[in-house]
Amino acid sequence: MPVTQPFPGGETPGSVMAGEIAEQPAVLSRILGEGAAAIRETARRVAARRPRFALLTARGTSDHAALYAKYLLEIRRGMPCGLTSMSTTTAYGARPGLTDVLVVAVSQSGGSPDLVASTEAARAGGAITVAVTNNPSSPLAAVAEFHVDILAGPERALPATKTYTAELLALYLFVEGLADGDGSAARVLPDLAGRVLDRGHEVRALAGRYRFAERMVLTSRGYGYPTVKEGALKLMETSYIPALSYSGADLLHGPLAMVDNVSPVIAVVPQGRGGEALRPVLDRLRDRGADLVVIGDEREAATASAGFALPTAGVAEEVQPVLEILPLQLLAYEVTIARGQDPDAPRALAKITETR
């Protein structure tokens, strides 16, 4: 069983998952220092083809990174963008015409057969295909026209942590590169990520508070929405606590009725337009007597039932998700330890999920 105190005081992480969480500042630095130029060059070559819209395809954790890229493409580039249903190709044999469409397939391993098959079909249909993976020798990288290496290094724990933030940063640099941007807003991330991870003891206190939770609800808006989807997945696959994630707007359309003062609600509140859009939702949650945990905005974190303020003052909203997920990764880890379970080996899971 992993030790219960992996982070404070510079201690050696007590599990594979803990160690990989702790690696993230170094991974972010590596991408910025060793990978950014290649990502910009790939983006420049793609932009020269003048794609008319974009489709993103992924599964699991990578699907949440793809959703983040959808927000980036639509907001930063004004490019219409959608998330694909791979089964239309793999199960139903559909072969849509995709001439001048940018198809971005995101996968940690690059080994899932349905991702490979759908990307191969997209390229045959005329798409500009880009694989974003942690394995440049993967089958997915081989069938795509372009490849973006996220440079996360081997990830041995079943719950993906460092590959998720690496995907976020690589996708941000790629989208910025489509308009010849340098992605300078991301330069602060390695240092700030280190500062967040140094506060693991604060998350451990939250884990003690919620170790017996029977259900959790997570909510956010805008760039924070992919974060709560990924946070919910981490909680479910490690601690087995049912965790439901909603856009704040969707939460008000029915699911708010299940909110009570027993099950915690975790709100990721970005500093920026997403946070502003979420504030009426926070008011409604307080009216419901919710046990509200706020991650993000300092003012909102100070007035919640519990909070974890992030050092995001002056940080561009579009890169804040790289920091927002870190407390949720730590929470999933610490709750799992507090419940007497092993976060490195969630039951019934494999590192490469071979969906078809």
Automatic annotation (TrEMBL):
Keywords: Repeat. Pfam families: SIS (PF01380). CDD domains: SIS_GlmS_GlmD_1 (cd05008), SIS_GlmS_GlmD_2 (cd05009). The keyword Repeat applies. The keyword Repeat applies. Residues 42-184, 206-346 form the SIS domain. PROSITE patterns: SIS (PS51464). SUPFAM superfamilies: SIS domain. This is SIS domain-containing protein. It comes from Streptomyces zingiberis.
